[in-house]
Amino acid sequence: MSKLNIVRRCHNCGVILQCEEPEKEGYIDPAILENTSARVLFCNKCFDESRYNFVPRTPKVSDEFLSMVQDAEASDALIVYIVDLFSFENSFVPEITETIEGLNILIIANKRDLLPKSCKDEELREYVAHRCRNARLKVTRDDVILTSLTSLSDTSEIIEEIEKRRMRHDVYIIGATGSGKTQLISSFLHTYSNQSNRAITSANYPGTSLRVLQIPLDTSTYIYETPGISLDNTIGSKLDLEGLKAVNPTSAIKARTFSFDKGDVLLIGGVARIELREGGKQDIKAFFAHGVTLTKVRSSHAEDVFFRRAASGALVPSSRALAGPSDFDAFDLTVEETGPRDIGIAGLGWVCFMGDKQTWRIFTPKNVSIYTTRAKVK
Ligand SMILES: Nc1nc2c(ncn2[C@@H]2O[C@H](COP(=O)(O)OP(=O)(O)OP(=O)(O)O)[C@@H](O)[C@H]2O)c(=O)[nH]1
Ligand SMILES: [Mg+2]
After folding, report:
1. What is the pLDDT of residue 113?
2. Whose CA is nearest to atom 24 of ligand 1?
3. Which ligand gives the minimal distance to the CA of 174?
4. Residue 52: its pLDDT value, please?
5. Low-confidence stretches of the chain (pLDDT beneath 70)
6. Helix axes 156-166, 181-191, angle to 10 degrees
7. What is the pLDDT of residue 3?
8. Interacting residues of 94 by C-beta distance below 8 A, sequence separation 6+
9. Could you tell me if 238 and 365 are in contact, meaning their C-beta atoms sit under 8 angstroms apart?
10. Is 104 helix (H, G, I), strand (E, B) or coil?
């Protein structure tokens, strides 16, 4: 007798599931198909991409960049790692930090001018060191210099520190795109005098196609300005020029305070939402560039309001590529710690609250990372 079987399809994209050819569409691990009674199944591709509650993504670098960093490691170089204080928490690349963890590292925490003047420098340096340690870099607050590398800033303290720490070894300036490497090198060149018989060159780093500025420090060592690490896990990767202008602060950010209760949702432009799922009433402080629209709504109609207002252009920034729920990742975060805490979204900003066993739900564009940590600005 004929037998009718249901053809199993991916719940997300509808493709017919198959276990034979991993490279072809619809592939699902045979073990999942055999051992499940689940009616809802995802092909491997959708399961990986439509993540829910997975660990936030870290950025990636090319093999060429890694081989340059391995050179630095092999020659026991000093690493000058520049971070943008406004948003650097999700910028570390595990392959890089694993390679340089045993080296002498100086952290330049740049763009101090974008954080409120009222926050204490000592606390900020400890915060940066703490985040670096989270990323496996063995640094203390004494390895962190806060600075604002605005045009023609005085970099003598940084240069002296580099000279003291490098012990006649090479120096590699590394950091994310836009963190301030070129600005640092420009100020450095203002007072630089060439003590060698070799020229400053801009050339491909040996064995790679990476363009590197190479400045002789003495007869045998150099300072290398390396290409910026491009961050594909930040909000910037989802925005056009106008959106980028809105999210990047140009002066010190000011906290905007909201009285928040269970069921309240903060719409962050048309690009992210943070919802208090469990927890009591309190004031939360939101730190985003002043061009970013912040709106508090109730959760019952948050999603509808969010997509409708974003489409009408009322929420800044917004993007046509972020038009529906499937364009977003969702994370549930239960806070165990007490005291002032932050939930941040890479490249966008953060919300500060008092930890009290709350549960938050955060929606960010797919592949844009979030973090949670002790408060950066109390
Ligand atoms: N507000 C502020 N802006 C800064 C500071 N330092 C750098 N900038 C700005 O940040 C942008 C990027 O600075 P760059 O020095 O070009 O950054 P970079 O690390 O060389 O970037 P890539 O070459 O792309 O890797 C520029 O528009 C700078 O003017 C700072 O301390 N404060
Ligand atoms: Mg540069």
Report:
1. 96
2. 177
3. 1
4. 47
5. 1-5, 36-39, 49-55, 151-152
6. 90
7. 64
8. 58, 135, 136
9. yes
10. strand
The neighbourhood of ligand 2, an ion, using CB within 5 A, equals: 181-182
Q: Give the pLDDT of residue 337.
A: 92
* H-assigned helices in 135-180: 156-166
236 burial type by CB count under 10 A (0-12 exposed, 13-18 middle, 19+ buried)? buried
Number of H helices and E strands in the chain, helices first, is 9, 17
Q: Which residue lies with its CA nearest to atom 27 of ligand 1?
A: 178
Supply 121's token pair: 């420098």
Cross-strand partners of 361: 275, 332
* pLDDT value for 53: 46
Environment class of residue 277 by beta-carbon count within 10 Å: exposed (0-12), middle (13-18) or buried (19+)?
A: middle
- Distance separating alpha carbons of residues 78 and 60, to the nearest angstrom: 22
Residue 315 CA to residue 94 CA, distance in Å, equals 34
Return d(Cα 56, Cα 193) in angstroms, integer. Answer: 45
Atom 15 of ligand 1, residue of closest alpha carbon: 180
* Shortest-distance atom of ligand 1 to CA 114: 1
For atom 11 of ligand 1, which residue has the closest CA? 178
pLDDT given for residue 5 in this prediction: 66
**CATH of region 63-225:** 3.40.50.300
pLDDT at 11: 80
Q: How far is the CA of 86 from the centre of ligand 1 (A)?
A: 12
Q: Which position has the token pair 């975060």?
A: 333
Q: Give residue limits of the domains in the chain.
A: 7-50, 63-225, 235-374
Total number of residues shown for the chain: 378
Give the residue whose CA is nearest to atom 9 of ligand 1: 180
Ligand 1 pocket, residues with Cβ under 6 angstroms: 110-111, 113-114, 148-150, 175, 177-183, 228
